Amino acid sequence: MRKLLVVDDDSDLRKSLSEALEENLYHVDQARDGEEAVGKVLAGDYDLAILDVNMPRMTGIQALKEIKSHDPSIMVIILTAFSNIRDAIEATKLGAFNYLEKPIKADHLVAMIDQAFRSQNMVKALAYAAPVFKMPNDTEFVGQSNEMKKVFSVIDKLARTETVVLIRGESGTGKELVAQALHCNGPRKDQRFVAVNCSAIPETLIESEFFGHEKGAFTGADSRKIGKFQYSEGGTLFLDEIGEIPPSMQVKLLRVLQEKKFTPVGSNREIDANVRIVAATNRNLEAMVREGSFREDLFYRLNVLPVQLPPLRERKNDIEALCRYFIDRFNQRYRKNITGIRPDALQALKAHPWPGNIRELENVIEHAFVLESEHEIHAESLPEKIKGQALQSGQEEYARASIETGTISLDGDDDGVSFKLNVQKLDFQASKEEFEKQFLVSALKTFKGKINQTALHANIPKKTLLRKLEKYGISAKDYA
Ligand SMILES: Nc1ncnc2c1ncn2[C@@H]1O[C@H](COP(=O)(O)OP(=O)(O)OP(=O)(O)O)[C@@H](O)[C@H]1O
Ligand SMILES: [Mg+2]
């Protein structure tokens, strides 16, 4: 229920408005003047305040300023006598949604509140739809799905803080992009962003890579060297694949996180670590903690504010926007002019489970992009494993599978694709062809041999349909 605050020194007006608003299912509190109003707003979570202009102790205008400086998203409606209309106009410049002239009619006020909430929702939706992050070079962080919008709003909040963030997600989900977004949109953006891949450093060198070493600290240390913690001073240190750091290093990392100090190898001088740590992993750290390969205390220290990136198969709504983004980039890189992606190709992409997530999608689009001779990406230009998906996903929706002893039968709805598979003699290719034949014959029967209609209703590109009919020696005319 929305929470409103009615503020007027006229107690009769306050009461009558409050009653009318409560009838409209708002939760209503009251205040007698600006000062009381500001106190209540600071203590409670109000959605909207209705403020009279002329009040003792603190005017409505002053209260408006204080409320807006506390929380600009609280809506304010000003109530004013005609003699104060200038103040009311001034109030709208200060962020009030609108004003109403006294005497106040309850239904006018209710209508205005309604309008205020609708516009607030619109603003929220817009802000939510377009979390545009500054990113390095000309890269973009694409995401339109609700899943990614949630992630974006978390990144947006975390970017402004200095706390350790652990980014979690399968391989290729964009963990490094999150780390960059946190850096580029936070207070350290003008300093260095240093990425370290923990899995790429040999165990014997990792301490020196992180903290640096003094000359002669170990065999081969023929000069003094600064480590990544010092190199990223003032900026962000991105510890990628944190699950791979050896136990000896885990304890040292924990110490830096706790004490914000480290000691270079072979030195007895402590150095302050002024870096923001962002870590990432695709490993199941909880399981690693259970089996003893990852320190529990370090895990808890890192996992305070995790950002979980959903796999691409759980946010298929992003596929189209990602494809467009990659096509734009490849147009520049390869100096081509591909304008988009054909619906059947998009459908096939949406049917694929994307175990390699966005990195895999990027590679697939690049592959298709290079092969494509026309102005749009066609399903034919996609790799074999993806092309097959369109047909397969159609079949899944179309057929109900029921397993009988020794045979699997796929039963079409009513128009008669019935397919028996001998489980003792399993052969995927042969079974697939058998299914295709039966499917095509049944579809042709239904659409009386008309190629265009069959292609349209069975959701097969016309070219593919003709190719398959030829392959199986099926003549559409036979069903006319
Ligand atoms: N939302 C996105 N918008 C645009 N590009 C993206 C997005 N997510 C990922 N990418 C691109 O996909 C590729 C893989 O992303 P990234 O390297 O950040 O993944 P990762 O989670 O770090 O993978 P890994 O675990 O394998 O290291 C990169 O080229 C990145 O630019
Ligand atoms: Mg990565």
What are the main properties of this structure?
binds adenosine-5'-triphosphate, Rossmann fold, 17 strands, Helicase, Ruva Protein, domain 3, binds magnesium ion, 480 residues, alpha/beta, 19 helices, 5-stranded parallel β-sheet, flat, 4 domains
What does this structure look like?
This protein is an alpha/beta fold and about 475 residues long. It is built from 19 helices and 17 strands. It folds into four domains: about 5-130, Rossmann fold (3-Layer(aba) Sandwich), CATH 3.40.50.2300; about 145-310, P-loop containing nucleotide triphosphate hydrolases (Rossmann fold, 3-Layer(aba) Sandwich); about 315-390, Orthogonal Bundle (Helicase, Ruva Protein, domain 3); about 400-480, Arc Repressor Mutant, subunit A, CATH 1.10.10. The strands form five sheets. Strands 2-1-3-4-5 form a five-stranded parallel β-sheet, with helices on both faces. A five-stranded parallel β-sheet has the order 7-8-11-6-12. A three-stranded antiparallel β-sheet has the order 15-16-17. Magnesium ion binds next to helix 7. The site of magnesium ion (MG) has 3 residues, from helix 7.
Round the mean pLDDT to the nearest integer and report it: 88
Largest sheet features: 5 strands, parallel
CATH homolog superfamily of the largest domain: P-loop containing nucleotide triphosphate hydrolases
CATH architecture classification name of the largest domain: 3-Layer(aba) Sandwich
CATH structural class of the largest domain: Alpha Beta
Distance between the termini: 62 Å
Number of helices: 19
Number of strands: 17
Structural class: alpha/beta
Sheet-strand content, in percent, reads 5-15%
In this entry the ligands are: adenosine-5'-triphosphate, magnesium ion
Helix content: 40-55%
Gyration radius (Cα, Å) is 32 Å
Q: Remind me, CATH topology of the largest domain? A: Rossmann fold
**Largest sheet, spatial ordering of strands:** 2-1-3-4-5
Shape: flat
Q: How many separate structural domains?
A: 4
Low-pLDDT parts are 393-416
